[in-house]
Amino acid sequence: MNEIKLLLVDANDVDRAYYRHILIELSKFSLTIIEAKNAQEALAALKKEKISCALLDHRLPDQDGIELLKIIRKSIDPSLPIILLTGHGDEDIAVHALKEGASDYLVKSTIKPLTLVHSILEAITKRQTDNAAREEQLQLRHDAYYDDLTGLLNRHAFEEMAVRALSEAKRHSRLLSFLFIDLDYFKAVNDSLGHSVGDEMLVAVSQKLTGILRKEDIIARIGGDEFAALITGVETAADTCQVAEKIIKELAKPFQLGAPTVQIGASIGIAHYPESGQSFVELLNHADIALFQAKEEGRGRFAVYQP
Q1: What is the pLDDT of residue 193?
Q2: pTM for the model
Q3: Residues 123 and 260 in one domain
Q4: Signed CA dihedral, 233, 234, 237, 239: sign only
Q5: Catalytic one among 62, 225, 239, 288?
Q6: If you placed Cys at 113, which of 18, 22, 122, 234 could pair as Cys (CB 3.0 to 4.6 Å)?
Q7: With 80 as the cut, is the pLDDT of residue 254 above it?
Q8: Domain range holding 185?
Q9: pLDDT in tens, 173-205
Q10: Is 225 a catalytic residue?
């Protein structure tokens, strides 16, 4: 366990000295104890130091201990291990403290030195375990929704967000446009320069697409060299066509990928809601049909699905 910074909040000098003595004597880890005599000093220390755990007396001269606990939870650190100390074994206080987020509740008159050390270590370990589990959940969610290489949304996430956006468009009678973007001559780059350069190209393309589209638009990598975009809030279909033209123009410019300068292009199929389809699957399929038409007509261009 790394160094522990313990905040000891107690107005009683004798009690603080006692806790400090037993903790220093019994701790088998690096320990720094920061002392505070009241709530004001405690809050100042919490804002200044990275505290690992707090021992908090229930009765402070300027603030009830549980009220201070609530302030810490709300305004400073919602997961800080906090052990409430009290001079009375009042079950109501214990229940109240635990309900407000105390990690443990100890009665001063019955505290055994080893019990105190164990309570501190257990509270800190629980926080570390909870944080690790939370980070793992966030990582799992990220992996489920984002493409590992480019950082864009993946196909699953794109569909989920597009279905939601489509529902909003139906409710408010708005226009939506689906763009199916396929890179021209990307296979030649992979075959001649290798997959690592191909990966660099995909990342560079993703960055360009992100720069061209607005924050409210939805962009995803849905296949090897295939991207999809959902353009929201457009006034007319012509607005989407202008976006497609800009994408084609930008992706036709040479890419400087380390030593080699690489040139590719892009073809785009467009399907508009509501005239090109009513569902996500229908619109994406129709955008794919339009993409095939654009490639048939010579690549480096866009085509709009015509029912």
Answers
A1: 85
A2: 0.62
A3: no
A4: negative
A5: 225
A6: 22
A7: yes
A8: 155-304
A9: 899 999 999 999 998 888 888 888 889 999 999
A10: yes
